[in-house]
Description:
Shape: flat
Number of strands: 15
Amino acid sequence: MLVSLHVKNLALIEETEVFFGQGLNILTGETGAGKSVILGSVALALGQKADRDMIRTGAEYALIELNFEVTDAVRQKLLELDIPVEDDQVILQRRVMPTRSICRINGETVNARVLKELAGLLIDIHGQHDSQVLLQTRRHLEILDGYAGEQLAEAKAAYHKAWQEKNAIAKEILENGLDEAARKREISLAEFELEEITDAALTEGEDEQLEKDYRKMVNGRRIAETLNLVHALTGYESAESAGEAAGRALRELSGIVSYDENLEEIYRQLSEVDGLLNDFNRTVSDYLSDLEFDEEMFRAAEQRLDTVNRLKDKYGRSISEVLLYAKKRQEELDRLNHQDEWLAARREALFQAQENLSGLAQKLGALRKKTAQAFTADMQAALQDMNFLHVEFEVSLTQKEECGPDGMDDAVFLISTNPGEPVKPLASIASGGELSRIMLALKTITARQETIGTFIFDEIDAGISGKTAWKVSQKLGILAKTHQIICITHLPQIAAMADHHFYIEKNAVGASTATTIRRLSGDGSLEELARLSGAAELTPSVLANAKEMKELAEKNK
């Protein structure tokens, strides 16, 4: 659920904050007051493309914040994104600046793509033009599948997997079905590469050891010079060496240690130093005695390293990758040498994959046929509730000749809104007002499949009035029992159904204009209903009519 919306410096909005509630939230106001800007700010916060012209004149940036109560699905998604969740809330923030915008979720900076992905779990925004999706027959199958729920979703997942497997086999055959000349060329190249790798007799980790040995040999002279110097400085061969100095100091201490027992610890420590120096000097000496430079060994290591690196440059970044390349190349060579048999086997596999796909497509089609019957019945009832008195609704399911990404089915929604008229595609029948009602009817019957908690309707009432408006308001009331609904409207019949009523207005503030929003209750709500009814003056009779309208709406909830 959307708990609150905070907007600053966006278009005509200087700064405002709205706290929404459960059920039906209605937004009303004069034309041009900024109602669509309020809901447009929600879309911006959810990742919609931002325009710097949206920033309020004179402001450095625009800020939109949304505070949601999270569901388990949203919480899981946030955990996958390593975004913390506290107090079961998620705060989405979008700061729009002239050159860029910054998106944050619970304080963590994210890109717009992540924001949009999360938005799909939080809210469904139905704008003024979204009903046009009903005119796109390619979307009808998607709508039908969404209505079907889990059973069909599982069948679609199985079909999509089989579809990918079939396409993978077909691609494999296409890419590897070479003509004789190309086959021979590929065999020759594969044999050359395999011979080159095999002759090298590579072993795992060999390159790392070679690098160590080569580095030691290359730097052998410097190592020897440095260690000889260290050996001399720490040894006992000159009066200036550390070993000789420590020995002399030890001898001097031995002459006085008997005079004070506290000197015994000093003597002991120096003895340890002398012993350590002696051990260290011996270790350096042993290392030097083993340090030999063999020109032949150096050249052999250099050549071997060149061979290994050349193969790594050609076939992989490591010896493991080179050996893996050789394994795959051997498999390819075996296939090329027995191409006819391989092709026959893959074509048989393709046939089996196509048969499997066809079977899954038929299963999918049967589920869709069953779904279409239930969908038709629900839509018929929902449309009648929307004041379509003589409506006929059907789902036309046809099968294509071949399997496609979504099966073999095509779906087209057909409707007749006049008695005696045959059903025809929505695109050729429905008016703008009818499309709005059809979309709302669709939302009411698919809401049970929705995991989204909040729906936004921007002027769902377009093109309707009178009794039809009452029917639409009742449907919104039904939908609001299970979902949070935020709706912009110009109709008093719909506004009367509000659980929470907000008024948006535009006022002059000094030399500028600002849009504000405030919550209405009691008399304020009745006065707004009266204004929406077209009353020029708020007379007692007009207010009484508004009160009656509100009471009637409450009775029908």
